[in-house]
Amino acid sequence: MTITELVGEIKKKKSFLCVGLDVDLTKTPSHLLNTEDPIFEFNKQIIDATHHLAVAYKPNTAFYEAYGIKGWQSLDKTINYINQNYPEIFTIADAKRGDIGNTSTMYAKAFFEDLNFDSVTVAPYMGSDSVEPFLAFKDKFTIMLALTSNKGGLDFQGKDLINNKPLYKEVIKTSLTWNNSENLMFVVGATKAEYFKGIREIAPNSFLLVPGVGAQGGSLEGVCEFGLNKENIGLLINSSRGIIYASKGEDFANAAQIEAQKLQAQMAKILADNNIA
Amino acid sequence: MTITELVGEIKKKKSFLCVGLDVDLTKTPSHLLNTEDPIFEFNKQIIDATHHLAVAYKPNTAFYEAYGIKGWQSLDKTINYINQNYPEIFTIADAKRGDIGNTSTMYAKAFFEDLNFDSVTVAPYMGSDSVEPFLAFKDKFTIMLALTSNKGGLDFQGKDLINNKPLYKEVIKTSLTWNNSENLMFVVGATKAEYFKGIREIAPNSFLLVPGVGAQGGSLEGVCEFGLNKENIGLLINSSRGIIYASKGEDFANAAQIEAQKLQAQMAKILADNNIA
Predict the structure, then answer these.
(1) What is the pLDDT of residues A165-208, one digit of tens each?
(2) Which CATH number goes with the domain that contains B153?
(3) Is A124 on the interface with B (CB under 8 A)?
(4) Residue A191: its pLDDT value, please?
(5) In this predicted structure, what is the pLDDT of residue B40?
(6) How far apart are CA A99 and CA B152, in angstroms?
(7) Strand partners, B184
(8) From CA B104, how far away is CA A108, in angstroms rounded?
(9) B25 touches chain A (CB under 8 A)
(10) Residue B225 has what pLDDT?
(11) Considering its fold, how many domains does chain B have in total?
């Protein structure tokens, strides 16, 4: 998928919602547990119920790895289902990978070629040659951790460097000089909307994947105030638990649709207020 | 496994060698390609030929993920083979994982419980709550990236903080204050032996997993001069390509044994010179 296509979908659906498919079988409806592949069955129903309200889906690979080989089969079926039925959807493998050059190439092939995801999340700690192998894939996107919304996020990301800039800003700035950096996006947590102001000064046009709205307490309006780019929107707002676990009953997919609809309506208003779509 | 058991094995074998099982089917002997599971068959023969010379094996998970579900089956068979036949071996899942708290717990369970590895490598970028879920497992070890030996390793790890300390030193120092930090080890590349001096000032007793000796140019003697701890040794020196790809012929396992033997002999001499074993 290209950025132009992604932006086109956002404008068409009036939504920049990403649904996180973090499936924990202790939280899913019990009636699915008797099916052959409960994780895939859950995902399939969530996707069918929300695909017109979301532009992206993001399975976190940890939730699949935790179920071993069966989990990988569920992930494989999920990405194939999306690609076959909703090819307009932007898919994100939330894998947070990163290794030395030739090893990163192996990961990139696994996610971009074998599983055919549009994008994958990566960690920056090992530097340029751990990320550039991902960036080398045309029309695929590498979403690098910059500022995360978890409790320990600032432990290192927030440390000031000798130039008085926090590490996460140095990470963003440096990575934009790497080969094929036009294929970079960044993970930026929604904990403090003000952070987006400083990030937009360094990366005015980059797409930002934003977790932490909703369950983790971030504000959609706040993020958009400082993070929205009027040309290409530049934001993908992720919600996982707030949507997929809206109900634990047989109505779970419908309940997910209602929650996704609420976020989509807020996004449509924000886009309209900014004369975007 | 406990540290005391690991140190006991090192003294018994007079070796602190870790063999990296990074299996790339384009580099393995062609006669194995006709077997049912060439990756496992390769690993099995390498392990049988070197287990008395090494104290640890380290499969890099990228090489298995790259082959999809079949790759995960090969990894599963490999770790089971080691655990059943050579339970005295310390096993390392080189996965470089790290995510928000509840997600890191999923990864920890996958590697420590389902696959039953003794240890797993993790990335520090997301801070305390991305690593502590791994540290919570008793008699399991979490090997955190500190200073890596790849080309881009210093891009961020080498950046000086406002206190004039490079990031990798801050990462080591801070992480030693986390809960259950007695279960921490660190990845420190062998590129410059002098780095080990500064690291030993911060982490005098921690085990360091050291890639980059051999193929990547690091010197075993140099690393030991500054990195060896006379009480518990505190080093695991990894070699991957130099051992497992010593020959591409039918004699590959024997060739691997010869290379492992060379490193073990050097290690035995270093231990003797330091009056350790």
Answers:
(1) 999 999 999 999 999 999 999 999 988 888 999 999 999 999 99
(2) 3.20.20.70
(3) yes
(4) 82
(5) 98
(6) 10
(7) B142
(8) 21
(9) no
(10) 95
(11) 1
